[in-house]
Specification:
Elements (H helix, E strand, L loop, with lengths): L1 H5 L4 H9 L6 E3 L5 E3 H11 L4 H10 L5 E3 L5 E3 H11 L4 H9 L6 E3 L5 E3 H11 L4 H10 L5 E3 L5 E3 H10 L14
Antiparallel strand pairs: 1-2, 3-4, 5-6, 7-8
């Protein structure tokens, strides 16, 4: 709060403060504004349109079919927010994984760089960006048929049981959260 008093356009401070609130909590800023978690993330985007974590955290705060209106008037869905996060940072493994979670079956999304991806491609990309991201392995394993394999970007060919065992065997699995990235 003190950082925002000194610089009310400090996007990272809005993200950090938002990450400390639950969906139902509010905070009073030094200028008297009462803000929710979502409003803090929206303000972070207003201050810095290229801050991936602000879009990501705002997307994570929304329900699947919810939308949010940004300060510039854009109406964005959870999916749109993850796509924006990837526009800002194309190596954001959590955003690829969460974007994949918004899709079902054969649905695809077009990223801002023109790539068209389905769940499988998004989860493979999440693993490419972060080889230790056990939740991405788990997500990929969940969508494969029992007799199906997938070739990862590093050339590893993995089966559904292998992908799912990565997530069960990893000591960092319990430490990884996809719902909020703190600064």
């Amino acid at each position: 709060i003190e950082a925002l008093r000194c610089n009310p356009n400090l996007a990272d401070a809005y993200v950090f403060l938002g990450s400390k609130l639950s969906a139902t909590e509010t905070v009073v800023l030094s200028d008297g504004r009462l803000m929710t978690q979502r409003e803090l993330y929206i303000e972070a985007v207003r201050c810095n349109r290229d801050l991936a974590v602000a879009y990501y955290n705002l997307g994570s705060a929304l329900l699947v079919r919810e939308t949010v209106t940004l300060a510039d008037g854009r109406l964005l869905s959870k999916r749109d927010l993850y796509i924006e996060a990837l526009r800002c940072n194309r190596y954001f493994a959590f955003a690829y994984s969460n974007l994949g979670n918004t899709l079902s079956g054969t649905e695809t999304v077009t990223l801002s760089d023109g790539r068209v991806m389905g769940q499988r491609e998004l989860y493979v990309e999440a693993v490419r960006c972060n080889r230790d991201f056990v939740l991405a392995y788990n997500n990929l394993g969940r969508i494969l048929a029992d007799n199906e394999t997938v070739t990862l970007s590093d050339g590893r060919v993995m089966t559904k049981p292998q992908l799912l065992s990565v997530s069960k065997a990893s000591p960092v699995a319990a430490q990884q959260r996809e719902d909020c990235v703190c600064m």
